């Protein structure tokens, strides 16, 4: 809209003529806000609307704005939607047709000056119908505003022509404007954050706020979504209309309490607003707001995607961009930029499908389709207790994905699926923070901690425990007791339900119990006092692994709290504390080869090539590959498994009397594992050079990386693919055997990584003596013991250089550590 600056109050004859009208309006407004204390929010909005609209109609009649005058007064914004708040702007468009400039000036001044004199916030413009349509065609914000246009006074034919023209123009032009609309929406979301997870939310512009409902109204007018169905009480994610009314009532009371047109609900106004609404204290209000914001955000996100998919395709794009289904996991497909169920999927018979869908969404950055979420919510059975190992792996993939897990968990939570996976989440959902240093609600803080823990996973030996510990560290909040003590008790049955070992459950419980110990000691204790250091070491039972996990968790927790909570100063104190604690703790035992079972030793006795595959745990299989030891055997064995779409979860490689025995625990990406004879044929072909298994794997790895990059470029504007950024980590470990080196590689896992790492060691001239491999969700921790010929100079640097080529990182981006000095 074009704002014409007001002239001096009472200047010119026009100002004097309208002074009385302005005074009457100002008095009426003051009286309404003074006497309207007994009105609820909806009644107050209606009273404000009646007051201003009746004044506008009377003033228009006084100025000669009648049905035959060539003028029409149109309300937009809150006035157009019939939801005028006490201190909202008055958005007006004065339409004219075939009137002289003098008459136009007189009528416009006669409207605007009294409103300015009454201190009414005014957003106004003077247009012909064609001029207004031209502005709407060129300015997306103006177009969205005019979709709410409503006739107030004057020539109704002009108002009808504008309203019909804007809507017709909007429907016909939506295809060319969708990209701009999406980018504008995501930019606003990034700027204002989510209402449901902010301690002081922006009710109007935040993600899940009032503007999002108006966005959905616009998409409904374009006939791209079922806007009416979203308001139904049984709609997936909740009723959009009920949530919108909740936010509108809160914003109305915020205006009344503050006496200003505020959109952000600051904590200082929370108690007054909640009292006016009769909902308890500001913490109760925060949970109500969060729930409403989640509902609106869910509908706006799914509605925006639905609208994009529903856009008609024309010309070449209709042929080129035909959506195709791409399988990602058992029962899981990508289709047209969303994660959906495969046609043959049976969610009512597949308890692990929810987490496979979630893992695919988090790892690709693609949203889960609304229909898929509804079908899972309606029919997916609960996971058995303890969980199958595959389900825990999929949960770890979600937790270690980095920022993409935010939308994945939010989608599951909004449809009730996350609460079924973790019933203890109900107590922290939408829970407002009690500490002013916290930026987020408790549930969002927890998820932010998991996000901040993902880049730290290569700092620890057990990335799975770090991820789960980050998820559960504040699970004891919201119950009125010490959340560390209660949380430590709560995670014991949770860990057992997830299928963790008793030792891991104990570590997890200790992480939750002591997750504040290091930051409190570092910032408040005397680190030069041996008793302080000894007390920390004793509290942790002298466990260096627990110390390592708590250090990473404390950093992630601090970064997720709010600006300035984690600083270089705090990091230096924490590092000093951890270093001093390590000095008083006993060292861990050195890694060594795993023992080999007698059966596999008997297979090695004939120095032939043997491959066995047997069921292991759940969907996993145990694959053993035995052959005379030679350079390249480990990489080729792992390459054969990768080429058959077998995900390696753990592995051990030993050499006995010149024969290599490689044991793998694997699971197929799709379907059933291949036959042992097929694996043996490929393994033999790879060993003899008849099949270039490593060359085939390298090509597939490059193609997969290119495909992922291309998909990232296709993701909708404002929602880039943002995976975890944990840097690779190379650690050199102490080795008691002379002439051998032991290296541990921690990195983000991918299919074929073990084969490519083993090949890198072989290219560096190293002979692998034994190996121990573990994969935790999407991170790998692989230990290799190798011998390197004496004539190779700088053996460690040479090995690291070849490993870096596989890890895709520069030397200065990888952390090298010597462990055991």
Automatic annotation (TrEMBL):
GO terms for biological process: regulation of nitrogen utilization. SMART domains: HDc. Its EC number is 2.7.7.59, 3.1.4.-. The keyword Magnesium applies. It comes from Mycobacterium numidiamassiliense. PANTHER family: BIFUNCTIONAL URIDYLYLTRANSFERASE/URIDYLYL-REMOVING ENZYME, BIFUNCTIONAL URIDYLYLTRANSFERASE_URIDYLYL-REMOVING ENZYME. Residues 1-327 are annotated as: Uridylyltransferase. The keyword Hydrolase applies. PROSITE patterns: ACT, HD. Pfam families: GlnD_UR_UTase, HD. Has four distinct domains: an N-terminal nucleotidyltransferase (NT) domain responsible for UTase activity, a central HD domain that encodes UR activity, and two C-terminal ACT domains that seem to have a role in glutamine sensing. Residues 1-21 are annotated as: Disordered. Residues 442-556 form the HD domain. Uridylyltransferase (UTase) activity is inhibited by glutamine, while glutamine activates uridylyl-removing (UR) activity. Residues 622-698, 742-821 form the ACT domain. Modifies, by uridylylation and deuridylylation, the PII regulatory proteins (GlnB and homologs), in response to the nitrogen status of the cell that GlnD senses through the glutamine level. Under low glutamine levels, catalyzes the conversion of the PII proteins and UTP to PII-UMP and PPi, while under higher glutamine levels, GlnD hydrolyzes PII-UMP to PII and UMP (deuridylylation). Thus, controls uridylylation state and activity of the PII proteins, and plays an important role in the regulation of nitrogen metabolism. Belongs to the GlnD family. InterPro entries: ACT-like_dom_sf, ACT_dom, HD/PDEase_dom, HD_domain, NT_sf, PII_UdlTrfase/GS_AdlTrfase, UTase/UR. It comes from the Bacteria. Keywords: Hydrolase, Magnesium, Multifunctional enzyme, Nucleotidyltransferase, Repeat, Transferase. Signal peptide: none annotated. Its cofactor is Mg(2+). The lineage of its organism: Bacteria, Bacillati, Actinomycetota, Actinomycetes, Mycobacteriales. The gene is glnD. This is Bifunctional uridylyltransferase/uridylyl-removing enzyme. GO terms for molecular function: [protein-PII] uridylyltransferase activity; phosphoric diester hydrolase activity. It catalyses: [protein-PII]-L-tyrosine + UTP = [protein-PII]-uridylyl-L-tyrosine + diphosphate; [protein-PII]-uridylyl-L-tyrosine + H2O = [protein-PII]-L-tyrosine + UMP + H(+).
């Amino acid at each position: 809209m074009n704002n014409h600056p007001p002239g001096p109050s009472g200047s010119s004859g026009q100002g004097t003529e309208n002074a009385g009208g302005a005074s009457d309006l100002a008095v009426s407004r003051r009286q309404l806000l003074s006497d309207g204390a007994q009105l609820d929010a909806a009644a107050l909005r209606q009273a404000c609307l009646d007051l201003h609209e009746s004044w506008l109609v009377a003033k228009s009649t006084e100025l000669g704005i009648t049905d035959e005058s060539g003028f029409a007064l149109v309300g937009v914004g809150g006035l157009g939607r019939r939801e005028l708040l006490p201190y909202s702007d008055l958005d007006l468009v004065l339409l004219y047709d075939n009137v002289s400039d003098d008459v136009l000036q007189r009528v416009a001044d006669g409207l605007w000056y009294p409103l300015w004199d009454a201190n009414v916030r005014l957003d106004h413009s003077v247009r012909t119908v064609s001029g207004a349509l031209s502005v709407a065609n060129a300015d997306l914000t103006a177009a969205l505003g005019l979709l709410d246009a409503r006739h107030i006074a004057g020539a109704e034919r002009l108002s009808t022509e504008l309203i019909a023209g804007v809507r017709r123009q909007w429907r016909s032009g939506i295809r060319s404007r969708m990209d701009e609309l999406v980018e504008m929406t995501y930019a606003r979301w990034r700027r204002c954050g989510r209402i449901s997870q902010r301690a002081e939310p922006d009710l109007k512009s935040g993600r899940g706020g009032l503007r999002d409902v108006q966005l959905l109204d616009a998409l409904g007018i374009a006939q791209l979504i079922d806007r009416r169905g979203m308001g139904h009480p049984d709609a997936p994610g909740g009723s959009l209309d009920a949530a919108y009314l909740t936010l509108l009532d809160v914003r109305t009371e915020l205006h009344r309490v503050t006496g200003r047109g505020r959109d952000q609900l600051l904590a200082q106004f929370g108690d007054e607003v909640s009292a006016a609404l009769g909902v308890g204290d500001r913490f109760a209000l925060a949970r109500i707001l969060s729930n409403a914001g989640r509902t609106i955000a869910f509908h706006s996100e799914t509605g925006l995607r639905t609208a994009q998919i529903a856009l008609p395709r024309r010309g070449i794009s209709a042929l080129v961009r035909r959506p195709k289904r791409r399988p990602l996991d058992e029962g899981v497909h990508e289709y047209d930029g969303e994660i959906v169920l495969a046609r043959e999927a049976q969610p009512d018979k597949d308890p692990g499908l929810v987490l496979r869908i979630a893992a695919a969404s988090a790892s690709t950055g693609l949203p889960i389709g609304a229909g898929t979420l509804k079908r899972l919510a309606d029919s997916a059975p609960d996971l058995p207790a303890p969980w199958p190992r595959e389900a825990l792996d999929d949960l770890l993939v979600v937790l270690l994905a980095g920022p993409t897990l935010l939308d994945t968990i939010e989608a599951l939570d909004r449809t009730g699926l996350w609460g079924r996976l973790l019933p203890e989440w109900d107590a922290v959902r939408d829970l407002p923070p009690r500490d002013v240093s916290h930026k987020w609600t408790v549930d969002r803080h927890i998820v932010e901690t998991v996000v901040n823990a993902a880049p730290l996973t290569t700092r620890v030996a057990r990335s799975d425990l770090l991820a789960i510990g980050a998820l559960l560290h504040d699970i004891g909040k919201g119950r009125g007791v010490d959340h560390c003590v209660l949380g430590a008790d709560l995670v014991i049955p949770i860990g057992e339900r997830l299928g963790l070992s008793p030792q891991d459950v104990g570590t997890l419980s200790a992480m939750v119990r002591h997750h504040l110990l290091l930051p409190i000691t570092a910032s408040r204790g005397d680190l030069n006092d041996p008793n302080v250091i000894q007390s920390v070491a004793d509290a942790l039972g002298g466990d260096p692994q627990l110390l390592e996990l708590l250090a990473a968790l404390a950093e992630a927790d601090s970064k997720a709290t709010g600006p300035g909570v984690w600083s270089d100063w705090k990091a230096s104190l924490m590092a000093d504390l951890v270093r001093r604690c390590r000095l008083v703790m006993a060292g861990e035992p050195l890694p060594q080869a795993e023992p080999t079972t007698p059966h596999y030793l008997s297979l090695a006795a004939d120095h032939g090539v043997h491959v066995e595959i047997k069921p292991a745990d759940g969907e996993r299989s145990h694959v053993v590959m035995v052959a005379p030891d030679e350079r390249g055997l480990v990489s080729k064995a792992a390459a054969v498994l990768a080429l058959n779409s077998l995900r390696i979860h753990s592995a051990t490689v030993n050499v006995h009397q010149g024969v290599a025995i490689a044991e793998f625990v694997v699971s197929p990406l799709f379907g059933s594992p291949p036959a042992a004879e097929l694996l043996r044929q490929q393994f033999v072909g790879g060993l003899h050079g008849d099949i270039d298994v490593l060359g085939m794997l390298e090509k597939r790895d490059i193609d997969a990386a290119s495909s992922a990059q291309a998909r990232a470029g296709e993701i909708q504007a404002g929602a880039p693919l943002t995976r975890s950024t944990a840097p690779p980590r190379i650690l050199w470990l102490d080795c008691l055997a002379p002439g051998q080196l032991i290296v541990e590689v921690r990195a983000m896992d991918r299919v074929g990584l073990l084969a490519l790492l083993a090949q890198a060691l072989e290219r560096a001239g190293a002979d692998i003596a034994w190996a121990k491999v573990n994969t935790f969700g999407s991170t790998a921790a692989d230990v290799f013991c190798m011998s390197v010929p004496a004539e190779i100079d700088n053996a460690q640097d040479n090995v690291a250089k070849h490993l870096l080529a596989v890890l895709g990182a520069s030397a200065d981006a990888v952390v090298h550590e010597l462990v055991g000095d």
